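Students often ask what a 'structure token' actually looks like in practice. Rather than answer in the abstract, let us consider TOG domain-containing protein, a protein of 428 residues. Its sequence is given first.
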Amino acid sequence: MGDVTATISRQELPEYVECVSKALTLARDKVRRANKASHEYLIPALCLPKGLAPIVQIFLQGVLSAESADAREDATKGLTLAVSSTTSAALKAHIIAITGPLIRVVGDKHPSAVKSAILESLGVLINKGGIALKPFVPQLQTTFVKCLSDVQISVRMKAATAIGLLMALQTRVDALVNDLISTVESDETEAGICESTYKAIAGVFAYGGKNIAAPNVTRAVDAAYAALASSSSGERACASLALSRAFLWCPTEERTAVLERLNAGDGRAAEHREGVADALCQISRANGQVIMNDHASITLNALVRAASDERPPSRAAAARGLGALAAISATTSGGASPYLSKLMPVLSKLLRDAVIEVRYAATRAFRVIIHAAGPSEMSIHFESFMNVLAECAVADKSSEVRHQAERAVYRAFNLQNGMDEALEHLRA
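Now compare that with the structural description of the same chain:
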């Protein structure tokens, strides 16, 4: 491959982006079929020393000099695909050659689709390259923070994701998180900018929370809590995520105080209740073991209250949160968990909800709980939910709800080992 590309002039290299991208896709499909259980699809040829070099040359030239924005976007996506298909060791020799040009290009004036693709590519490089990207951390951080205020939401959200990934390589996190919190605290910051900034804060806490000082943890929690009442659904969602990530780094007393504030639901507007329900859901999913060890009662009570809210997003969030916590309990105690007998009727009621989003969340919750409890463990609770779950599997109008219900029933009756257990329950 290197010998072939050596005969092609630099100006002509972008013309080969499409065919090389197709070849990469076919090679990845072949690897995926051969390794269905794998979560990473590595192309053997690209894992060889210098195996990536000729392909990188083609894609980089496409990013830098392709004539149209669409062609540059395609070249960037091809580069991302190539980086995803090799090992960290094989990538190491190409880190400088790839990262430097991408940082320069993302700072230029390009359409949002091109910028988004480049930011995604940089995120993949951070994941794959690891410590080899350490020299680029200051430049990358400056670039990502600047993109948080881009006019296009796709660029802002890609930048927010990349900032979080970068924190795995950055030990001096406090100054950054202080600036991000100051941005969302300002009354002059637009809701769209707040949305992406809260997502960035969530990523910073997820990957670099141990390096954040206690005062900034408290500030992040307070700012995110206040944003749960925002009129912007996107800002509420990202604030919920930020709150859930900062929550882990609070002392026990402060975590309890946060949950008490979330549980004090009287007099809240409908949108505020949606934000609170989503926050409870995100906290439960991100910190399930901590919640079940130290804050189970107050959190479960708040989620059960949200499950009867008049707003469908609140009920769906409650179903997801209850499913996450019930699964944690079921993993430890199986079907004998003391919480399951109280939570199964609540989730069962949500299976009959008029809104597809809520039914999907409830069937998904049952699937997660049954899987966590283990085969046959849930049989003592069948009376409280199985009839409704089976009805969803057979007759629900939504194919997605039916699929989740089918998989839950399949696991509950241990059908992977035959029909005997199912027939026994049916006779009973």
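One point worth highlighting: Residues 1-134+155-166 form one domain. Ask yourself how you might have guessed this from the sequence alone, and why that guess would often be unreliable.
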